[in-house]
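Subject: Anoctamin

B.,
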Amino acid sequence: MYEIMEEEEFEFEAMELPDITVELPDISCCFFPQAEFNGKSDSLFFNDGVRRIDFVLVYEDEDMKEIDKNRTFQKRKVSASLMKMGMELEAARSVVDEKLLFVKVHMPWDMLCTYAEVLHIKLPIQPNDLSTTSSPFNFLSCITRHFYPSEDLIAKETEYFTAPFEKDRLEYFYVKDRDLFFTPSMRSRMAYYILSRAPYEVRGNIKKFGVTKLLDGGVYKAAYPLHDCRFNVRSKEEECPNERYLLYNEWAHPKSFYKMQPLDLIRKYYGEKIGIYFAWLGFYTAMLALAAIVGLGCFIYGYTTQETSTWSKEVCDPLIGGNIVMCPQCDKECTYWRLNSTCESSKVKEKVPYTACGRCIRVSLGIGTVLFWIVLILASVVAIIVYRLAIFFSFSTRLQSDLKELEPFKEYVTAQMATSVTASIISFVVIMVLNILYERVAIWITDFELPRTKTDYENSLTLKMFLFQFVNYYSSCFYIAFAKGKVVGYPGQPVYLLGKYRNEECDPGGCLIELTTQLTVIMGGKAIWNNIQEVLLPWMKNLIFRYCTRVGSEKVIPRWEQDYQLQPIGKLGLFYEYLEMVIQFGFVTLFVASFPLAPVLALVNNLFEIRVDAWKIITQFRRVAILAVASNAMIIAFTSDMIPRLVYYWSFSVYPYGDHSSHTMQGYINNTLSVFDIQDFSNKNIEISDTHQDTTDNMNTVSTTGM
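Prediction pasted inline below.
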């Protein structure tokens, strides 16, 4: 992926830089020293104890075979290029596996200043001496301080005025200690910038460069900056700040789940990108709180008042719903049924209806591939619809007889509900399989397009992934919300899908229950799958790796080798974390009208997400270098029967259309039904067996919805 990073364009001012475009140096005299491990397991320095390790490269010491000679040549070329640019290198052999060599990289002061100016890194000029306005809630500090990280462990960061660094104006910057002026995250960022541009092969006009390509080709096994200590044990080095240890205890440890995030320390340790992700995630989670309270209130109110719903009473009343015989929902095998058989599902309703050129060819190929996968998603949705139609027919004929012994659950497990749950589970499995396959295709297409810069690459990949996932996750929900039950025809002339399957109808209580089931399965299943993929798998990989490379307890393992045993953060970094939250936000906003508990589930998920992500990157990974409103309106209009209820409540329940003296919902159920003469049924539509003849002997008409 990141080989395009090496061609990234920056709009920086022209300045003198170490020349990396000249002919590669002679490698015959460019061997760097190899030092024996000094036994200091927590050391972050070269063996001299002075030069800080800014980055580590790991490779396997191959035998001089023909197949490995080119790799050895490339590694020597990279090392020679780095030393020519000013970097200092020191190698150390692994204490666990003698084949592994760790190359420690150090950037001298002059080199740091040069590349800090190149990257326009903002650094402090002087401390902030402006007075700040005290908060009116300071009197609550005796209570709120318990919800913040301990100031005895994580001191409040001093605020500074900052400016983009300029080497020629060094005297204007606040440099108290040269060793601490550039934070470790800044140093590793500059080191990676140089490593990603280090040439290793020149053939005519073709120049190959960048350690990322060598990582992909297996020349190097890993490249990473160091953690400052173990996450659960303080470093023995006196000058070590133990920031990883502090972050674990005050942020990632389960005992600190109630505390606010130490965003300044996160930003200082991991850099701005990860810092802003956790700041954004915390803000988004806080904003979900109000929506969660409202949604939970709506759910509790609806649950506690379901027995007082007028239309639910009419559906469940044996004298009203029990005397209304409904048309069969499928051909031949399905029978007539009474309206009160849907009593339970009718209770999950609203109480009162309130309103609320080469490149062009490559890009064209990429667009065509994305469209093909979107069509594939739609085809999978159609396949699931066919499954629903076929399985509903099967459940309608056998389900009740198969559940004779489960009498307490018999009234809840209807053919409609069983079809909805099984179809939702199958839909979720299809969604996750398509996601895994499409992710590989999307990365391959974006690589094939050859974007000029890293930003172009990320924008192109983001667009492809979001378009696909939007259709993949939401298409089945949109079908239930806006399409299901809308084109079913009428008794005697139903509409058929593919000329064979009769279009499915919504339950008399509406399609909201099915939509809620679909959302619950997808949101819940997605959260479980993400945690398995992001937490359980890395933990198991680390456990297996430690077991396979275990050494005697008498051996001391250096810091760089301890970090090598951790998992690398993926090439896409935080991309999937942001994408996960965007998809979740879509569920919360697009379908909250049908599933008021969606914000509550999202809030609970995010409270865990923050701490799980924190635990994951601290303990398991190496250090890292307007539709919503319209959609809710459409859900109300298409999925529920809120608008027909409003019309009845305000117009048809009183004079001149109704007989009631005041606005009421009484009689609404009967008003929505029409009468159908069963003699008008064709033999294709219905075939009455002897066992159901008694139901129709004394009637000439039945009731039907949707007229």
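Confidence is low (pLDDT under 50) at residues 1-30, 348-356, 626-637.

T.
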